[in-house]
TrEMBL record:
Domain GP-PDE as annotated: residue spans: 10-256
Organism annotation: Comamonas nitrativorans
EC number(s) given by UniProt: 3.1.4.46
Gene name, Swiss-Prot/TrEMBL: ugpQ
Designated name of the protein: Glycerophosphodiester phosphodiesterase
Record bears the keyword Phosphoprotein: no
Pfam families: GDPD
Amino acid sequence: MSSTSAWPYPRWIAHRGAGALAPENTLEAFRLGARHGWRMFECDAKLSADGVLFLLHDSTLERTTNGHGPAGRHGMGALAQLDAGSWHSRAYAGAAIPTLEALVRFCLANGLLLNVEIKPNPGQAWQTGQAVGELLARLWPDDRPAPLLSSFHPSALDGARSTAPALPRGLLVDDFATGSTDGDAALAQAAALECRALILNYRLWLEHPALVAQAHGAALRCLGYTVNDPADARRLIGLGVDGLITDRIELFVPDYPGDCR
Ligand code: G3P
Ligand code: MG
């Protein structure tokens, strides 16, 4: 890895498919995002009780489905029966929780790029990373820009490295550790995991602008989430941040391929 390593991703990434315009992490959301012209998507992946990777942000089912309790206690058959759309709007009533494999196949069929956030159930970080790596190494062809794997959990990225060492990893950080006012610990952690990217809550880039050059100097691309305000986006781009993850798919207009690096 070097600072000049190819980075085949666009600047803009649609968060959870289509932000708030469709029920997050459903195939309907990714379809809507693609219809708006988006070409790279973030999603949240975790394991079902029977070992199937599926898309859901929360550890529990209540907020975004008509199910109850910890999501990881259910098998995929039961999860697939849930209504993951009605909470959003009537137009999406009956939308299903998809497997990660279904989203991968959708992306491959449509020439779309993927950022899979490994969002493990409690206590399952390493094994979830391992499973995500295994699935993507098996399904994603070598001649397409590889999925970017990311996680707040270092052990999830380590698990992904164990099964898919060639897939690029990005360390997610929401806040710097108490006592650390800069990103040194995050940079060290990203280096230890051989990451290609540091993906921060965008406010951290704004609060620590010198960190962009530090990360670039360490051969890390700089991404920020969740950037929903145009003024923030302009400031981040001005700082040299390489990628912006946003909910506002109707507001920002990705300029492909002009915004690719
Ligand atoms: O992957 C970026 C972002 O999705 C991380 O936060 O809570 O929206 O998954 P969250
Ligand atoms: Mg996420």
